[in-house]
Amino acid sequence: MTEHTDSKTVSRPTLSRRGFVGAGGLALAGVAAISGRVQAAGIPEAATQASPKMQPPLFPHTGPDYNPVVTLNGWTMPWRMNGDWKEFHLVAEPVVREIAPGMKANLWGYNGQSPGPTIEAVEGDKVRIFVTNKLPEHTTVHWHGMVLPNGMDGVGGLTQPQIKPGKTFVYEFLLKKSGTFMYHPHADEMVQMAMGMMGFFVVHPRDPQERRVDRDFVFLLNAYDIGPGSYVPKVNTMLDFNLWTWNSRAFPGIDPLVVAKDDRVRVRFGNLTMTNHPIHMHGYDFKVTCTDGGWVPESAQWPEVSVDCAVGQMRAFEFKATEPGDWAIHCHKSHHTMNAMGHTVKTYIGVDMKQITQKIRKTAPGFMPMGGSGMADMGEMEMELPDNTLPMMTGSGQFGPMEMGGMFSVVKVREGLAAHDYKDPGPYKNPEGTIAYEYKGRLAEAPRQTGQIDSGAPTVVEVNVVKPDMKNMKH
Ligand SMILES: [Cu+2]
To answer: Does pTM surpass 0.85?
Structure first.
């Protein structure tokens, strides 16, 4: 692309019939609103979103047809056509994001939410993305995975000057290939990503039949360290995050992935945390069909039930939804399916807490013993929590407490759903005789080995164990 457009040539936008207002109409059916706070002529208005609820997919009103993606607890940014340019307007700004009902966080994001709106376009599109900085410090936007001119790559200082507070920059590039991408700042990255600045960017194939699926879900893996009772993430945390989130939401605040039986389904995610996340889905095997590097040829795909997503990677997997049910989908690191927890809590499994509790209560009257038989009781316990704090293990299903949190959701496969019906259908009605059940017969005494093992080896073994120093360990 040799064409360079400065602010003069974009100062007279032609709002085509299928332009910004038309494309915005669908989002307006949800909670999105045109802010009206912009700006000089020539810049598309910046749509903004006040709600953390999943918004309906944004069907294309210009150019080739495609099946739009659905952003968990998110939305797709409307655009306008200006000549043959597809124009978007991102506003980097402080936002308030509900992490889950009962907890809000003061984050930084784009256009009212964190993550920012999903950008969707088509292979071969020319995109012009205005970025207005309403943060208290400079920023840039890097288009992760895109093949574009070096000066559009968004690395502050290296490929462009930083976007100072109050300023608007323009990015222009041709979408050379379809696939799965994301955007995030490349300026004061540690702070800006710890504060929630990121967004999804999907480029659909030019041919609507190519790699077509019926449902296409997207989310970003992110993490926060927000102390109990507080609202602002600690930005210096490197490893010990306490909130593991998809699109800045923690279970039970994460939307279910609602799917009609026999749909072809794609699930795309990208990892902007500081550690890897093995994403595991129950009930199915699937194939990884796309990474941020491009589509995976069929001959190179193999079946999986978990796919690890390393830091800075993106993965998309696909399956045919042949099995109805409520299928868990979650990160397989068990600490990532919990909400804020103190990692210094001692393990008391096997300890009789009665006596020690009486002793402790003499000095600390409210002391509550915990964990003598595991921690499952915490899923049910009505403990008093500081304000703005999510319980560590929470959520309940039709059979009781689930003891989950963090990076957990449910793929809800149902018969007879209309296309693009993403409403939560409620709990799955299992066919009779297909649920695990309690055995109520007589339990025979299980045979146990008794006496000495006749191996000639001594039965009393002395073991000297050197324990590692736990004081300075973190995870
Ligand atoms: Cu994880």
So the answer is: no
C-alpha span between 64 and 66 (Å, rounded) = 7
Compute, in angstroms, the gap from residue 268 CA to the centroid of ligand 1.
15
Q: Give the Cα separation of 153 and 142 in Å (integer).
A: 5
Compute the radius of gyration of the chain from its Cα atoms.
Answer: 26
* Distance from the alpha carbon of residue 330 to the mean position of ligand 1, in angstroms: 8
In b/e form, how buried is each residue of 55-83, taking b as 16+ CB within 10 angstroms?
bebbebbbbeebbbbbbbbbbbbbbbbbe
What does the pLDDT look like over 218-266, one tens digit per residue? 999 999 999 988 999 999 998 889 999 999 999 999 999 999 999 999 9
Q: Which helix (H) or strand (E) holds 354?
A: helix 353-363
Ligand 1 mean position, distance from CA 278 (Å): 6
Strands (E), 301-445: 303-304, 306-309, 314-320, 325-331, 394-397, 400-404, 408-414
Ligand 1 center–CA 359 separation, angstroms: 39
Query: Ligand 1 centroid vs 223 CA: distance in angstroms?
Result: 9
Partner residues linked to 47 by β-bridges: 34
Determine the Cα–Cα distance for residues 373 and 38; give it in Å rounded to an integer: 58
